[in-house]
Amino acid sequence: MTIKSIEITDNDWKLNKTSFGHISLLVGISGAGKTKTTEIINKIYKAATSGAHHAAGCSWRIFFQIDRHEYYWEGSVAKIEATTDPNIIYQTKNYDRIVFKYEKILLDNITIIDRDYETGEFKYNNKTLPQLKWTESALSLLEDEAALAPLMYSLKHIIVVNNEFNWSYLDDISQYNLDNIRTIDDLRESLNMPLLVKSFILKTKFEKIFKEVEMTFYDTFPFIEKIDIIKFAKDIFFPNKPASCAIIAKEKGMKKNEWFFGNLLSTGMLKTLKILLELALAPKGTLILIDEFENSLGINCLPQIADSVNLRQRDLQFILTSHHPYVINNIDWRNWKLVTRRGNTVTIHNTSDIPALNTASTIERFELLINAPQYEKGIE
Description:
The chain has helices at about 35-50, 140, 150-155, 185-190, 195-205, 205-220, 265-280, 300-310, 325-330, 360-370, 375, and strands at about 1-10, 15-20, 25, 60-65, 70-80, 95-105, 110-115, 120-125, 125-130, 160, 170, 225-235, 245-250, 260, 285-290, 315-320, 335-340, 345-350. By secondary structure, it is α+β, with helices and mostly antiparallel strands. It has two domains: about 1-155, Rossmann fold (3-Layer(aba) Sandwich); about 160-330, 3-Layer(aba) Sandwich (Rossmann fold), CATH 3.40.50.300. The chain has a 14-stranded mixed beta sheet, sandwiched between helices. Strands 11, 12, 13 and 14 form a four-stranded antiparallel beta sheet that branches. The longest helix has 17 residues, at about 35-50. The protein is globular. It starts with a strand and ends with a helix.
């Protein structure tokens, strides 16, 4: 899946229609709207897959490319007053309800979903459907339909890389059937499996791919002798208790069996490992959102991570934000997107439209970017 263009409002905030390529690096002054843009895309994805309450006050128009087909999804989510309608089940403590007020989905310019809360109509392929939960998206309600399945599948595979660092240990992995994974595609498409469990399977069943992750990690942190992911009985006196899973590591110079748990790794090391594993495990067509790319990463981490992103741009889509000159200079300048804001309205510009950048060297382009009038007047 590739998001070709997107236009969003979130209550009083608006993002003008913006196009995206395989890599889009959002740049601009602080407060222009870079983080807000990634957050609102995440909100809409959660609304599609997990319910309207994730995107209260939002409306959107999005064009997707999936294989050789184009999807258009337009929607709006809003709060309504308390009601006795049994199809509206989500409520806040204020007894408001949050529902999909409107949805329209087109496949190759043919309308397949037309849904309107005000009229009560819900049509699929021009056939009226019975009343269904307005708190859930049409995509969620009809995800098994052949025309909608590719779009829902793609939305479920969006990956948001954040600064969560408690992912390196899981107390109980008994609910995950590791024996069902036979191919790397099986593993990559295991939506409900935590990253740590998927990484353990990667290590045990697909050693070559895991070794590539290891080598990149060791190149970044040469003082680490070994990184490993293990499954173990938490209580040696009760071996039948559910197994735990954890990252362990060993630094050079430590004794043979002197390992430590992954939670003792630095935040930069954990984030680097997390990104490398996410990239290795992402199925083709996945959209990956990374806000503040350089957060918690030292200068020694950035080259390998930037290179890893560039290597997978052909089969994944990335929407990134960054202020760091190293990150910006190591993403092709034609993939930079300059974010500006006027009041509550955000516009994302193609930097290829800034004439001065078309003639500069790589080093000069960053300097010209931050000195460009469009950048300096990022907020009006």
